[in-house]
Amino acid sequence: IGLGRIFGLRYPENFRRPYVADSVREFWRRWNITSIMWLRDYLSLPIAGRDAPTLRLLLNIFLGFCIVGLWHGAGWTVVTWAAFSSAWLAVEAVGFGALLERWPRVLRHAYVLMVTLFGWLLLRAETHAHAWAFLRAMAGHGATTDLMASRYMSFGAWTALFVALVGAGPLVPWISRWRVTLDAFTAAMVMMMTALTLFVWRPIAQFGALFSFPRRRRT
Known about the structure:
The chain has 11 helices and no strands. By secondary structure, the chain is mostly helical.
Protein backbone atom coordinates (compact mmCIF):
# COMPACT_ATOMS: atom_id res chain seq x y z
CA ILE A 1 0.00 0.00 0.00
CA GLY A 2 2.83 2.37 0.88
CA LEU A 3 4.74 1.69 -2.35
CA GLY A 4 1.53 2.26 -4.29
CA ARG A 5 1.06 5.66 -2.64
CA ILE A 6 4.58 6.67 -3.72
CA PHE A 7 3.67 5.95 -7.36
CA GLY A 8 0.24 7.57 -7.08
CA LEU A 9 -1.73 4.31 -6.82
CA ARG A 10 -4.22 3.54 -4.08
CA TYR A 11 -4.65 -0.08 -3.10
CA PRO A 12 -7.35 -1.15 -0.66
CA GLU A 13 -6.63 -2.82 2.65
CA ASN A 14 -6.78 -6.58 2.36
CA PHE A 15 -7.22 -7.27 6.08
CA ARG A 16 -8.98 -4.68 8.22
CA ARG A 17 -8.41 -6.07 11.72
CA PRO A 18 -10.80 -9.01 11.26
CA TYR A 19 -10.27 -10.40 14.76
CA VAL A 20 -11.97 -7.40 16.36
CA ALA A 21 -15.23 -8.34 14.62
CA ASP A 22 -18.22 -9.19 16.81
CA SER A 23 -20.09 -11.33 14.26
CA VAL A 24 -19.10 -13.90 11.68
CA ARG A 25 -20.48 -11.76 8.87
CA GLU A 26 -18.41 -8.79 9.98
CA PHE A 27 -15.36 -11.05 10.22
CA TRP A 28 -15.69 -12.02 6.55
CA ARG A 29 -16.25 -8.40 5.59
CA ARG A 30 -12.86 -7.61 7.15
CA TRP A 31 -10.87 -10.70 6.14
CA ASN A 32 -9.16 -10.97 2.71
CA ILE A 33 -11.23 -8.07 1.40
CA THR A 34 -9.84 -8.07 -2.14
CA SER A 35 -10.66 -11.76 -2.66
CA ILE A 36 -14.19 -11.32 -1.30
CA MET A 37 -14.73 -8.30 -3.58
CA TRP A 38 -13.37 -10.20 -6.60
CA LEU A 39 -15.75 -13.12 -5.99
CA ARG A 40 -18.65 -10.68 -5.67
CA ASP A 41 -17.85 -8.49 -8.69
CA TYR A 42 -16.56 -11.04 -11.21
CA LEU A 43 -18.20 -14.35 -10.28
CA SER A 44 -21.40 -13.07 -8.61
CA LEU A 45 -20.63 -15.11 -5.49
CA PRO A 46 -21.31 -12.78 -2.55
CA ILE A 47 -19.91 -13.61 0.87
CA ALA A 48 -21.07 -11.76 3.99
CA GLY A 49 -23.30 -9.45 2.02
CA ARG A 50 -26.53 -7.86 3.16
CA ASP A 51 -28.90 -9.53 0.69
CA ALA A 52 -32.05 -11.25 1.85
CA PRO A 53 -31.26 -14.87 2.82
CA THR A 54 -32.40 -17.36 0.19
CA LEU A 55 -31.44 -20.91 -0.72
CA ARG A 56 -29.72 -19.70 -3.88
CA LEU A 57 -27.77 -17.09 -1.95
CA LEU A 58 -26.63 -19.77 0.51
CA LEU A 59 -25.49 -21.94 -2.39
CA ASN A 60 -23.54 -19.04 -3.91
CA ILE A 61 -21.87 -18.33 -0.58
CA PHE A 62 -20.96 -22.02 -0.26
CA LEU A 63 -19.38 -22.00 -3.74
CA GLY A 64 -17.51 -18.81 -2.89
CA PHE A 65 -16.08 -20.39 0.23
CA CYS A 66 -15.04 -23.46 -1.78
CA ILE A 67 -13.03 -21.22 -4.12
CA VAL A 68 -11.43 -19.40 -1.19
CA GLY A 69 -10.61 -22.73 0.42
CA LEU A 70 -9.03 -24.11 -2.75
CA TRP A 71 -6.67 -21.14 -2.69
CA HIS A 72 -5.26 -22.52 0.59
CA GLY A 73 -5.23 -26.19 -0.41
CA ALA A 74 -7.29 -28.97 -1.93
CA GLY A 75 -9.11 -31.72 -0.06
CA TRP A 76 -12.45 -32.79 1.32
CA THR A 77 -11.81 -30.70 4.43
CA VAL A 78 -12.15 -27.61 2.21
CA VAL A 79 -15.74 -28.62 1.38
CA THR A 80 -16.47 -29.22 5.06
CA TRP A 81 -14.98 -25.84 5.96
CA ALA A 82 -17.06 -24.13 3.25
CA ALA A 83 -20.25 -25.75 4.56
CA PHE A 84 -19.30 -24.86 8.15
CA SER A 85 -18.63 -21.19 7.33
CA SER A 86 -21.71 -20.86 5.13
CA ALA A 87 -23.90 -22.36 7.83
CA TRP A 88 -22.83 -19.76 10.40
CA LEU A 89 -23.54 -16.93 7.98
CA ALA A 90 -26.95 -18.44 7.28
CA VAL A 91 -27.72 -18.78 11.00
CA GLU A 92 -26.86 -15.14 11.58
CA ALA A 93 -28.89 -14.04 8.54
CA VAL A 94 -32.11 -15.79 9.60
CA GLY A 95 -32.30 -14.22 13.04
CA PHE A 96 -29.36 -15.13 15.23
CA GLY A 97 -27.54 -11.97 14.14
CA ALA A 98 -30.25 -9.75 15.66
CA LEU A 99 -30.07 -11.75 18.89
CA LEU A 100 -26.29 -11.54 18.83
CA GLU A 101 -26.39 -7.74 18.88
CA ARG A 102 -27.96 -7.88 22.36
CA TRP A 103 -25.03 -9.84 23.78
CA PRO A 104 -22.19 -8.10 25.63
CA ARG A 105 -19.32 -7.21 23.33
CA VAL A 106 -16.92 -9.58 25.10
CA LEU A 107 -19.23 -12.54 24.48
CA ARG A 108 -19.64 -11.59 20.83
CA HIS A 109 -15.88 -11.51 20.38
CA ALA A 110 -15.51 -14.87 22.12
CA TYR A 111 -18.20 -16.34 19.85
CA VAL A 112 -16.41 -15.11 16.69
CA LEU A 113 -13.04 -16.41 17.89
CA MET A 114 -14.47 -19.86 18.63
CA VAL A 115 -16.18 -20.12 15.24
CA THR A 116 -13.09 -18.98 13.33
CA LEU A 117 -10.84 -21.23 15.43
CA PHE A 118 -12.78 -24.36 14.48
CA GLY A 119 -13.07 -23.10 10.92
CA TRP A 120 -9.31 -22.67 10.46
CA LEU A 121 -8.77 -26.09 12.02
CA LEU A 122 -11.05 -27.70 9.45
CA LEU A 123 -9.43 -25.79 6.60
CA ARG A 124 -5.83 -26.58 7.49
CA ALA A 125 -6.29 -30.22 8.56
CA GLU A 126 -5.11 -32.79 6.03
CA THR A 127 -8.04 -35.15 6.70
CA HIS A 128 -11.19 -35.20 8.78
CA ALA A 129 -9.53 -37.73 11.11
CA HIS A 130 -6.67 -35.31 11.59
CA ALA A 131 -9.10 -32.50 12.43
CA TRP A 132 -10.95 -34.74 14.89
CA ALA A 133 -7.66 -35.67 16.57
CA PHE A 134 -6.80 -31.99 16.98
CA LEU A 135 -10.24 -31.24 18.41
CA ARG A 136 -9.86 -34.05 20.96
CA ALA A 137 -6.40 -32.82 21.89
CA MET A 138 -7.70 -29.25 22.32
CA ALA A 139 -10.39 -30.60 24.64
CA GLY A 140 -7.79 -32.55 26.63
CA HIS A 141 -8.76 -36.01 25.40
CA GLY A 142 -6.51 -38.38 23.53
CA ALA A 143 -3.60 -35.94 23.28
CA THR A 144 -0.35 -37.39 21.99
CA THR A 145 3.20 -36.13 22.18
CA ASP A 146 2.98 -35.08 18.54
CA LEU A 147 0.19 -32.62 19.31
CA MET A 148 1.55 -31.05 22.49
CA ALA A 149 1.76 -27.26 22.41
CA SER A 150 5.24 -27.31 23.97
CA ARG A 151 6.58 -28.87 20.78
CA TYR A 152 5.57 -25.86 18.66
CA MET A 153 5.43 -22.88 21.05
CA SER A 154 9.04 -21.73 21.16
CA PHE A 155 10.17 -18.33 22.45
CA GLY A 156 9.89 -16.89 18.94
CA ALA A 157 6.37 -18.28 18.51
CA TRP A 158 5.24 -16.82 21.85
CA THR A 159 6.75 -13.47 20.87
CA ALA A 160 4.98 -13.51 17.51
CA LEU A 161 1.70 -14.46 19.23
CA PHE A 162 2.03 -11.56 21.68
CA VAL A 163 2.76 -9.08 18.88
CA ALA A 164 -0.18 -10.47 16.87
CA LEU A 165 -2.55 -10.08 19.84
CA VAL A 166 -1.48 -6.48 20.39
CA GLY A 167 -1.62 -5.65 16.69
CA ALA A 168 -5.01 -7.27 16.12
CA GLY A 169 -6.68 -5.65 19.10
CA PRO A 170 -8.10 -2.15 19.47
CA LEU A 171 -5.31 -0.97 21.80
CA VAL A 172 -3.94 1.63 19.39
CA PRO A 173 -7.00 3.09 17.60
CA TRP A 174 -5.32 6.48 17.19
CA ILE A 175 -3.01 4.96 14.57
CA SER A 176 -5.97 4.59 12.22
CA ARG A 177 -6.86 8.28 12.58
CA TRP A 178 -3.36 9.41 11.66
CA ARG A 179 -2.61 6.70 9.11
CA VAL A 180 -3.21 8.90 6.05
CA THR A 181 -1.03 11.68 7.47
CA LEU A 182 1.70 9.19 8.29
CA ASP A 183 1.57 7.71 4.78
CA ALA A 184 1.79 11.14 3.18
CA PHE A 185 4.66 12.18 5.46
CA THR A 186 6.60 9.00 4.70
CA ALA A 187 6.14 9.41 0.94
CA ALA A 188 7.20 13.07 1.15
CA MET A 189 10.34 12.19 3.13
CA VAL A 190 11.33 9.47 0.63
CA MET A 191 10.92 11.83 -2.32
CA MET A 192 12.74 14.64 -0.47
CA MET A 193 15.72 12.43 0.37
CA THR A 194 15.87 11.16 -3.21
CA ALA A 195 15.76 14.69 -4.63
CA LEU A 196 18.36 15.90 -2.12
CA THR A 197 20.71 13.06 -3.06
CA LEU A 198 20.42 13.88 -6.76
CA PHE A 199 20.81 17.62 -6.06
CA VAL A 200 24.03 17.08 -4.10
CA TRP A 201 25.46 14.40 -6.36
CA ARG A 202 25.10 16.38 -9.60
CA PRO A 203 27.25 19.42 -8.59
CA ILE A 204 29.88 17.10 -7.14
CA ALA A 205 30.00 15.13 -10.38
CA GLN A 206 30.28 18.32 -12.44
CA PHE A 207 32.97 19.75 -10.16
CA GLY A 208 34.96 16.56 -10.41
CA ALA A 209 34.69 16.60 -14.19
CA LEU A 210 36.45 20.00 -14.30
CA PHE A 211 39.62 18.56 -12.76
CA SER A 212 39.66 15.25 -14.55
CA PHE A 213 41.99 15.36 -17.54
CA PRO A 214 42.00 12.71 -20.21
CA ARG A 215 45.01 10.45 -20.01
CA ARG A 216 47.48 10.54 -22.87
CA ARG A 217 47.71 7.42 -24.87
CA ARG A 218 51.04 5.75 -24.82
CA THR A 219 52.73 5.46 -28.16
